[in-house]
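2024-03-11 09:14:02 INFO queue: dequeued item Leucine-rich repeat flightless-interacting protein 2, len=97
2024-03-11 09:14:02 INFO validating residues
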Amino acid sequence: DANRQISEYRFKLSKAEQDITTLEQNIGRLEGQVARYKNAAENAEKVEDELKAEKRKLQRELRTAMDKIEEMEMTNSHLMKRLEKMKANRTALLSQQ
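2024-03-11 09:14:37 INFO prediction written
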């Protein structure tokens, strides 16, 4: 009976050691996954920061371009008015002659 119990305990010990080994392997695998996920998250944050900076830069460029367009449209409008005045003056001068 004692031998049967010893054999049973040895089997249980062996099984527990196998379970410990399996759990240790799982820990190692999970730690590797955590490290990969952490690196991926850090890279994603870096890319996000770069994209935000690029977006701000592009928005500044867009505002500058829109300001230039507005300025050029005003200049164009002013020049068109001057041209119309010059045409009117020329027409008036030609009609006086």
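2024-03-11 09:14:37 INFO annotate: The chain has a mean pLDDT of 97.
2024-03-11 09:14:38 INFO item closed
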